[in-house]
Amino acid sequence: xxxxxxxxxxxxxxxxxxxxxxxxxxxxxxxxxxxxxxxxxxxxxxxxxxxxxxxxxxxxxxxxxxxxxxxxxxxxxxxxxxxxxxxxxxxxxxxxxxxxxxxxxxxxxxxxxxxxxxxxxxxxxxxxxxxxxxxxxxxxxxxxxxxxxxxxxxxxxxxxxxxxxxxxxxxxxxxxxxxxxxxxxxxxxxxxxxxxxxxxxxxxxxxxxxxxxxxxxxxxxxxxxxxxxxxxxxxxxxxxxxxxxxxxxxxxxxxxxxxxxxxxxxxxxxxxxxxxxx
Amino acid sequence: xxxxxxxxxxxxxxxxxxxxxxxxxxxxxxxxxxxxxxxxxxxxxxxxxxxxxxxxxxxxxxxxxxxxxxxxxxxxxxxxxxxxxxxxxxxxxxxxxxxxxxxxxxxxxxxxxxxxxxxxxxxxxxxxxxxxxxxxxxxxxxxxxxxxxxxxxxxxxxxxxxxxxxxxxxxxxxxxxxxxxxxxxxxxxxxxxxxxxxxxxxxxxxxxxxxxxxxxxxxxxxxxxxxxxxxxxxxxxxxxxxxxxxxxxxxxxxxxxxxxxxxxxxxxxx
Lengths: 278, 270
Fold this sequence. Notes:
The complex is a heterodimer of chains A (278) and B (270).
Chain A: H1 25-48, H2 54-58, H3 61-94, H4 100-107, H5 109-112, H6 115-126, H7 133-140, H8 148-173, H9 177-184, H10 189-217, H11 221-226, H12 237-247, H13 249-275
Chain B: H1 2-25, H2 35-43, E1 48-55, H3 59-72, E2 76-83, H4 85-93, E3 100-102, H5 106-114, E4 118-128, E5 130-135, E6 155-158, H6 163-174, E7 183-185, H7 188-196, E8 202-206, H8 207-212, E9 217-220, E10 230-237, H9 243-254, H10 256-264
Parallel strand pairs in B: 1-2, 1-3, 6-7, 6-8
Antiparallel strand pairs in B: 3-10, 4-10, 5-8, 5-9
Helix pairs in contact in B: 1-2, 1-9, 2-9, 3-10, 4-5
């Protein structure tokens, strides 16, 4: 199900699509196959779900704790990604600087890095003996592994590229003449950014944030490696699902469905309220 | 070409029959020496791919045994899938293409045999017990389970769903030690790596895992581990594509050569 438009740009709401246009079979066939491919695993979960025991499992104490922790951490990670990622995307889209290509490539590193490796990398930097972690620990007594903050860090690390890429795309697609006009009228770069650029690409930021949130919500590898797994502090839903899978396939399916239902409901709600609004 | 194929199939069938019979005769769960099986496998070399699903704690030893096995059977190639035993059991029950399953606990083996996935009964080939893995030099001076509850000591355990976690719980219960770990890891290697990276001060891992990591880790033995010994069962799977190769590999693990590799790594004979 398409949760976000690819660019997130506001769609031409009033222009009705041409009626009864012939859809080329060359597009329809792969599109249909693509849809099947994406939805079949979901159908598999639904078919195999132990519906009779569902209510009992829903009320098991650990489940709601993990779900609540997941929602909190993914939301905090998204906030962090927006605060840091939007300026970075602006820099990449609007400023010519040496090494921009390299920076753009570096931004996508968490995308290609296996999340578990990302978790190890985070440990090497923010761990108790990490490059920064050791100093943070000895100076301030702050440690990140095995804390909820650690979960947020791991999720933000993995999810931020999704936001940056979406926002940079929106910035490049936005008409820069508005910004130029603002500059001609005497607006500084900061004012132009806050009063012209941001409103212009707001739908793109919203779309990027949604992608980012969804990725953070499903994060597993970096989280379990960097933050560990303990109920209540670091055990998010994906971790609970993985461990349930160790002993009880039915429980794992139920947990997956809960996570899926809640996230789809939230995303659908957001979409109606924010993303498609002009 | 065809005649060679037939010959291979015949020898394979013979091997299956011989090992199968001896497995039937071997009712006790512990592995007695199986001379008939061993002579069969050494007489007829097997060929083809053998896919072995083995517990994470067997990674080093089984890789070594696999190499020896390939040397002894030049036409054979052993492919391993190492993971937590419970994950492996789930994969096998969901139809993953495996020939042999070596589990770190009888419970996970039971998951497979209860689903009808095993050929004959499982054989216990080694035992393993827990030690406390601490960073090299034991900076927090940990001497036993009770020391793990000292303030400022961060401990990683395996999650109870995996064998090393179940064993840890048993040992802690036996010692009546109430412990709040900072993390419950998904398998024994993950728990060990948290010690290696210095993120925790101690973890309960298998003796064999601590032994592999002696460069970074010291293993502290504790008496209560005797009450939480893990049996490692191995079995040929019913859906094995290469049944002959699977039988031969299991026989090789149970042979003196296989046992030598395993005991050298710190496993105990069953």
